[in-house]
Write a structure and sequence with these properties.
The chain is mainly beta and about 60 residues long. The chain has one domain: N-terminal domain of TfIIb, CATH 2.20.25.10. It is globular and about 35 Å long. Strands 1, 2, 3, 4 and 5 form a five-stranded antiparallel sheet that branches. The chain is built from one helix and five strands.
């Protein structure tokens, strides 16, 4: 069961209090401000700063 829309409406990033959005691959919730990605394990978002990874906006270019 994916993360519900109702839950997404109330969740915020614990680091900066900005809105989080579900990643396109449903692997985590990404903060719109600080770009931290909080993992989703067993259909439960893990909203711990220590568990988050900061994700770049653009993928690195291959040379």
């Amino acid at each position: 069961m994916p993360v519900s829309e109702q839950l997404l409406e109330i969740l915020v990033c614990p680091a900066c209090r900005a809105k989080v959005e579900l990643k396109s691959d449903s692997s985590g919730l990404k903060c719109v401000e600080c770009k931290r990605v909080y993992p989703i394990r067993d259909d439960i978002p893990v909203m711990l700063i220590d568990e988050a990874k900061i994700e770049d906006e653009q993928p690195a270019a291959n040379n």
